[in-house]
Amino acid sequence: MTFRDALPEAVDVVVIGAGVIGIATAWFLNTRGVSVLVCEKGRVAGEQSSRNWGWIRQQGRDAAELPIVIDSINSWSSIGAEIGADVGFTRQGVLDLAENEAELERHAKWLDVAKQHQLDTRLLTGSEVDRLITDKPGQWVGGLYTPSDGRAEPFVAVPAIARAAQRLGAKIREDCAVRTIDVQAGRVAGVVTEHGRVNAQSVVCAAGAWSSLMLGNLGVDLPQLTVRATVARTVKAPDVFAGNASAGGFAFRRRADGGYTVAAYGENEHLVGADSFRYFRKFLPSLFANRKTLRLRFGDGLWSRMTPTRRWGAEDITPFEINRVLNPAPSARALAKMRAGLARRLPSLAGIEFEEAWAGMIDVTPDVVPVMDAIDGYPGLFLATGFSGHGFGIGLGAGRIMADLVQGRPSAHDLTRFRFSRFSDGSRIVPGPGL
Ligand SMILES: Cc1cc2nc3c(=O)[nH]c(=O)nc-3n(C[C@H](O)[C@H](O)[C@H](O)COP(=O)(O)OP(=O)(O)OC[C@H]3O[C@@H](n4cnc5c(N)ncnc54)[C@H](O)[C@@H]3O)c2cc1C
C-alpha cells in the first residue's frame, strides 16, 4: 500500500506532516472514528522520524514528560500486536555509563525524578556494568540504568503505523505540501495543498522543523531552531550489549538487524541563519546550558538561511515544495568520533564497517521540550512540535494527547509545561535536560 490517497473534499481533521507525531495523532483519531487526512510534503517518516537513534527512553527526561513517555512506552509495547506488524520494539534498557565518580554523581542526580515516578532506574556498580557490556571489562566505575526503557526501528515503525491507519480509513498523501492553513470567519476551515483545497474543522500542525515557517505565514510566532545530528549504522556485529548505551563521547544501540546504530556526543551543529538572531534571546538559557556540546556553523548556504522566504499565498510555490525532504550531509568529524569511540571502548567493534551514515535536522524549542496545545485566536488549530531530539519515544503518547485535544476531551496528563503561550506570556524559560 502506498501513501498516495486521493484528496477528499472534506475531513474532520487535517494533519500536516507524516512524522511519528502526525502519524500517531492520525492513528488515535482514526481508532475513535474521526476522519483524517495526513498531508506529507515528502515521504512518510522521511525527516527526523526515520533518522533518529530509535531510543524509547524514560531515563534523563524532563519530569513533566515522564508520565507521557511512560504511557507512550506502554503503547509502543502493544502497537505491534494492534497493527499486525513488527515495529522492532523491545525493552533492553538505557544505560548511561560513567568512567569516573564525578560522572556517576552527575548521572545519579536523576534518581530522585525516577523515584517520584516509581521507575526501575538504578545505579550500577562497575562489575554490574561489566556483566551487561561484555567488551573490555573494568573501564567503567558504574552507570545509570533503566531496564524498562526500550527501542524500536524508526524507519519500519512509523510507516507500519501509517499503513495500519490507512487500513482503518485514514487518507495519507505524500508529495503533498500544505501551502496555507485556511481561516474563515475567525476559525480554521481547512488547508490549501499544492494539489487543491480540503475542508476541515480542525488542523494539527505536526510539521517538525517546518512548523515555525508554517505558522509564521499565518502570523503566529513559534520560536524554533534546528540542529544537525549525524548517525551511522554498522554491518552485523558481535553482541556486546543488547540495549541503548551512552559512553562518554558516543552512543550506541543494538538494532533488530544485528548491527548497531551509533552516534557521537558534542557534535550537534546549529547552522546559523536569520532565525538564530531572531530567537537568540529566547534560546540563550539553553544555548548556555549546552555550550560544551553544541557547535555553531556559519558556512554551507549561510546566505539562503539569512534570507528565508517567510510569506506566500495559496497559489505560490512554497519552501515546502522546494525542499521536499531535509537531507543534510553527515558530519565527517562526528563519524570519526564514533569510530574512535568504538575502537577505544568496544574493541570487538573496532574498525567495523559503517554500512550507512546520515544526518537529521532536530527541531528544538527554547526550553527543549515540545509544544502540545491548541493555538489561541485560531479555533480549530492545534500544534504538536518541538520534540527537541526526543520525540520518537514519546511519539505515541503525544499522538494520544493531540487526539484528546482535537476532540475536546480532558487530557490524562498535565500539559502546563507544554503550553504554547509560555514563549510569549513572559514566563521564564527553564531548559529541560537536553536533546
Ligand atoms: C539524529 C536524530 C536522533 C534522534 N534520536 C532520538 C531517539 O533516539 N529517541 C527519540 O525519542 N527521539 C530521537 N530523535 C528525535 C525524534 O526523531 C523527533 O523528535 C521526532 O521524530 C519528531 O517527529 P515529528 O513528527 O515532530 O517530526 P518529523 O519526523 O520531522 O516530521 C515532520 C514532517 O512534516 C512534514 N512537513 C513539514 N511541513 C509540511 C507541509 N507544509 N506540508 C506537508 N508536510 C510537511 C515534513 O516533511 C516531515 O516529514 C532524534 C532525532 C534525530 C534527527
Structure commentary:
Strands 1, 2, 8, 9, 10, 11, 19 and 20 form an 8-stranded mixed beta sheet that branches. The chain has an 8-stranded mixed beta sheet with strand order 5-6-4-13-14-15-12-18. Strands 3-7 form a two-stranded antiparallel ribbon. It has 435 residues and is an alpha/beta fold. Strand 13 and strand 14 form a beta hairpin. The chain has a single domain (10-93, 148-423), classed as FAD/NAD(P)-binding domain, CATH 3.50.50. It is built from 14 helices and 20 strands. The longest helix is centred in the N-terminal third of the chain and has 18 residues, at 66-83. The chain has helices spanning 20-31, 48-51, 66-83, 101-108, 111-116, 126-132, 154-167, 211-216, 274-278, 280-289, 302-306, 319-322, 332-345, 395-407, and strands at residues 10-16, 36-39, 55-56, 94-98, 122-125, 142-146, 150-151, 171-173, 178-184, 187-193, 196-205, 225-234, 244-247, 250-254, 260-264, 268-271, 294-297, 354-364, 371-374, 381-385. It is globular and about 65 Å long. The model has no long low-confidence stretch (mean pLDDT 96). Helix 1 packs parallel to helix 7 (154-167) and helix 1 (20-31) crosses helix 14. It binds flavin-adenine dinucleotide (FAD). Flavin-adenine dinucleotide binds next to helix 1, helix 2, strand 12 and strand 18.
